[in-house]
Amino acid sequence: MKYKVSHTTSYRYEVGVTFCHNIATIKPKNMLGQTVLSYNLNVTPSPTEISERLDFFGNTVTRFSIQKHHSVLTVTANSIIEKDSSLQPNIYNSPGGQNITLQESLLALQNINSELLDIRQFILESILVAGITPEIKAYAEVSFKPNRSVFEAAHELMQRIYTDFEFNTKVTNVATPIKEVFEKKKGVCQDFAQIAIACVRSVGLPARYVSGYIETLPPPGKEKLVGTDASHAWFSVYIPEFGWVDFDPTNNQIPKNQHIVIAYGRDYYDVPPLKGVIYSTGMNKMKVAVDIRPADE
Q1: CA distances from 54 to 62, 119, 244 (A)
Q2: How confident is the model at residue 112 (pLDDT cuts 50, 70, 90)?
Q3: Which of 279, 280, 274, 287 is nearest to 14 (CA)?
Q4: Is the dihedral of CA 138, 139, 145, 146 positive or negative?
Q5: Is the pTM higher than 0.70?
């Protein structure tokens, strides 16, 4: 499956900006089962400096600065992505990975090698997945039992979050603590991913945040409106004897071709689409438009 992805972020500044420095994390990953066929980043006004590199987690980030007065900033990323999830390892074809228990996994994670040392950083609390409460741990332990398969437990956790939490765009923001999200049982995909990550880490397993996109379909008989899609997020659990397995609690499914991966991090704070600093006063207004559709449309 080939997709065209367009992601535009625009800022309007009340009194203008004299200098800004930004980091964009919006280039999809080249990885097994996902190929970036083309990618173009347009920044208006033209940056004074711009460079691309890999960050600590292996994500592509673009740094740019604008050193002249401007009242509007527009950043647009256009990509064509080819997806073939059949090329990726399948947990259902791995008896060892599918059946390894929590107790066995915790023992395996005690081994000291370079790969596991890198993975074990995803067990620690992070900026937005911090202050894991006893209530969150108790919620996790309903699924994660010592002699139960980690895959089975993580799959059930995904289903429970899908059932127990309400998708609501008006009750949280990027800074809402996980404790508050858990108490309200309301939020968006970012919140559900981070609640899941907190649960997995509370039992001693590595979990990471995945930022990306998901293809959405219009209601039957309706045309798809341009720019009405959104960024998406889900979580990934490391299972010894297999590797990372992704779970999408917002949609209650294991991601396949319809999920496009941009970046991995400890939580949203590591991989926001755009962040930066500006020299300015007054208010500013942000607008985001995302469009994902088959490349042949």
Answers
A1: 9, 18, 20
A2: confident
A3: 280
A4: negative
A5: yes
